[in-house]
Amino acid sequence: MTAVSSAIRFVLNGEDISLTDIKPDTTLLDWLRLERRLRGSKEGCAEGDCGACTVLVGRLMGDEVIYDTVTACIRFMGSLHGTHVVTIEHLRGENGNLHPVQQAMVDHHGSQCGFCTPGFVMSLYGLWMRNPDPSQGAIEKALQGNLCRCTGYAPIIRAGKAMSSYGLPQGDPLLAERIALKSRIKAIHDGGRVEIGEGAERIIVPASLDDFAAIYEANPEATIVAGSTDVGLWVTKFMRAIGPVIFIGHLQELKAIADNASEVRFYAGVSYSEAMPVLVENFPDMAELWDRIAGEQIRNMGTIGGNIANGSPIGDTPPPFIALGAKLTLRRGTHRREIKLEDYFIAYGKQDRQPGEFVESVTIPLLPAGEKFAAYKISKRREEDISALCGAFRVFVSDGGTVGMARIAFGGMAATPKRAKAVEAALVGKQWTQDTIETAVAAFAEDYQPISDMRASADYRLLSAQNLLRRFFLETTGNGQRLRREVA
Ligand SMILES: Cc1cc2nc3c(=O)[nH]c(=O)nc-3n(C[C@H](O)[C@H](O)[C@H](O)COP(=O)(O)OP(=O)(O)OC[C@H]3O[C@@H](n4cnc5c(N)ncnc54)[C@H](O)[C@@H]3O)c2cc1C
Ligand code: FES
Ligand code: FES
Fold it and tell me: Which of 333, 25, 36, 332 is nearest to 203 (CA)?
């Protein structure tokens, strides 16, 4: 019998918090600013884009407490059970001194109006904790999710480069507290479930993966919330009611990554940031695409399972995963079934998922030797932008130069992520030559009739997809310069 408690418990800065009366859609930012009067974290966009609300959330991973930057505006209170929340207010020393990272920002003129500054400081603080002497690339990456409208980024980056000269993490005034906090955080993880409220106000934090499976089977009307980088916006932008809610972001079993000589399996709760090292190792041609998903805070929160489950036609993981032949494991209660990822997407807003069934994992076969693969994202901004289109290409070309196999998949070109089967057919059995490519690009119009929207026109999408095939051909035949950017 699973023990059930009725309080969301976490540590805010140095204080133990226990909440027995909290709504499923209360965000951390609202709670900090309105309930706790901690107004250092700002609300700029309320949709995870600007980083003004950045805080650190420490969570237990094995025996360690790992600190991630997150956007408090789209993080719900129910997801904080068993964590340590650190806000900008906590960085100031007891004697009123600025933290080394703050002092570096002051001395390098990293702030003008100051609205964005707490968010930048928290992102730099998170970076400094794990990498006090970062390269320019690492600083830019850590700040991908922070926008400043007045200072300009050069002084902020200079502060990032200088921060280690103001102090090192070993001497962090907060280090002793963090070490002491570990046992308090561990004590909250008592192996039990948390349940608060009733009906549409109900919050459930399952004790384990099995507990989640049983709860969701019995409550298929509930909203699953993993990283809340989609669901957060349902609340802050669309004022949608989301309760009852089952929070799953804390489930260690859903954070597992299993790889062997033939495949990699990501459980659904693996965040983009957690997946990155494994992807870079096994699919280096996906690294740049991954680095262009959102910004660091969203990559720390958003999960692979959420990106697939939401069925979005413009999610960035389905096209490369479909091109690689990924399979999805769906689970309802104790029953599991496996389907091809491409078959999961039936129509716009319709996926092959039964009531009470959830995405448990996605399994991606490793690329066989000799196959060529690439994934490309086209968006208006390099960072922190949703794809206008995202395409992935995989071909096998024999020693004689014949295309033996082709798998091409796109997002942003149809109502679902979708394979380009006519283009594939136009390639297979032909010579891998520019002439073949020029014939095959015409087939894109058979596969896709894209729409025009704020991200791109239909014509732009079609032409870009055709040009991406040309680019893939040039890159794989050594005739084109590889247009990739190094990922920090
Ligand atoms: C600022 C910003 C930038 C973004 N940039 C990008 C981008 O560049 N590329 C991109 O692809 N996406 C982007 N996104 C979208 C978002 O990050 C992803 O879709 C994310 O992967 C969703 O995962 P999550 O864990 O946050 O999902 P949640 O918001 O928690 O859930 C999303 C949906 O999936 C369901 N769900 C979650 N987990 C499961 C599960 N295991 N089984 C069944 N259902 C489940 C939820 O009920 C909900 O319907 C961005 C979002 C923001 C806010
Ligand atoms: S307020 Fe803009 S990211 Fe949270
Ligand atoms: S200092 Fe004004 S927004 Fe950055």
Answer: 25
